[in-house]
Amino acid sequence: MGIAALDIFGALLAFAGIIVPLLLFSGALGIRIFAVLLLLGILFVAVRLALRSFQPRITAGTFRVSRIIAGSYSIFLVLASLYYVVQIFILGR
What pTM did the predictor assign? Predict the structure, then answer.
């Protein structure tokens, strides 16, 4: 659960790092591309964490409930990242 707590804190910081430049530079094309690259990085890390969380208990050495909670959070983080990638380009029109 400690990894999930750090993942939540990291996601808050990462999404803030995406939103602040978009607000400061009024959504310029270069900033939108930079934001999408950051979101793809979040997506990659969240997918990896989700895959590791749903590994069998024998290889992971953790409790089932904590793996399900951490994996579910990672899936929600993946969905949020994909949602914001779409929103960046839809609202940029």
Answer: 0.75
